[in-house]
Design brief:
CATH topology of the largest domain: Rossmann fold
Protein name: MAGUK p55 subfamily member 5-A
Keywords: Coiled coil
Radius of gyration: 18 Å
Oligomer: single chain
Organism: Apis cerana
CATH superfamily of the largest domain: P-loop containing nucleotide triphosphate hydrolases
Pfam family, one: Guanylate_kin
Largest sheet: 6 strands, mixed
Mean pLDDT: 83
Low-confidence stretches: 1-7, 14-38
Strand content: 15-25%
Length: 272
């Protein structure tokens, strides 16, 4: 379903898959700080332990999948899903896209916690009861969900669809386990794997950006990327080797632009 190009070039959907990542030993690491604090992500939403139903067992991995050409439709912008290991630059890429608020938008998350006086339902969050949230989980309405400080948080298929229906491109940072429900919907997601370069180039990037790092953390990023590609690589439409953030962003934006002009190979079931 995709073709891998060696080196630091992006890769796109094509034929046989080959690995572009290096293997390293797994090591523990600390979460990266951001402007909202350690307990919040780059959008200001709380970090929570993500839960998604992982139905992609080894027995289900498809060596071949029937595909068909999908022609772009002006009234349906394919959601862009960024996948990758922690601290590889997915959030930076997403935030750059989100600066163009006329074209890109985020899915408004759901939560079971009480609404604050300053918050607007449907704008800050979709506020629902805990029992309703649990019912929606069982009905597989969330592509991912989790719990933080005794409250549920999650991203629903309908919230993504709402962005699509508005005529904008929904940009998501998800764990690859979340792809099962999303790919089984009618939303036709375009999955981009943001991968690290070699250990040496990853080290050079950190030094160039004046970012502190530990060697074990860099190895851990590469190892997690390797694991993701091994398990979920057949679901990736594109791989971007993030050696340089500006270059990676330009590659991503170029590909998104092409999605609105050129036909793409997708699972045949999506166009039937």
């Amino acid at each position: 379903m995709k073709q891998t190009i060696a080196g630091d070039k992006s890769t796109v959907r094509g034929s046989k898959k080959s690995s572009t990542l290096l293997c390293a030993r797994k090591n523990p690491k600390k979460k990266k700080r951001n402007k909202f604090g350690a307990n919040y992500n780059d959008d200001g939403y709380p970090h929570y332990a993500t839960t998604a139903i992982d139905d992609y067992d080894s027995e289900e991995v498809l060596t071949y999948e029937e595909v068909a050409l999908y022609y772009p439709r002006a009234n349906h912008k394919r959601p862009i899903v960024l996948i990758g290991p922690p601290n590889i630059g997915r959030h930076e890429l997403r935030q750059r896209l989100m600066h163009d608020s006329e074209r890109f938008a985020a899915a408004i998350p759901h939560t079971s916690r009480p609404r604050k006086d300053s918050e607007v339902d449907g704008q800050d969050y979709h506020f629902i009861s805990r029992s309703q949230f649990e019912s929606d989980i069982l009905c597989r309405k969330f592509v991912e969900h989790g719990e933080y400080e005794k409250a549920y948080y999650g991203t629903s298929v309908e919230a993504i669809r709402s962005v699509v229906n508005s005529g904008k491109i929904c940009v998501l940072n998800l764990h690859p386990q979340s792809l099962k429900i999303l790919r089984n919907s009618d939303l036709k997601p375009y999955v981009v794997f943001v991968a690290p370069p070699s250990l040496e180039k990853l080290r050079q990037k950190r030094i160039k950006n004046n970012e502190s790092f530990k060697e074990e953390e860099l190895k851990d990023i590469i190892e997690k990327a390797r694991e993701m590609e091994d398990k979920y690589g057949h679901l990736f439409d594109m791989i971007i080797i993030n050696t340089d953030t500006d270059r990676a962003y330009n590659q991503l934006l170029t590909e998104i632009n092409s999605l609105e002009r050129e036909p793409q190979w997708v699972p045949a079931s999506w166009v039937q």
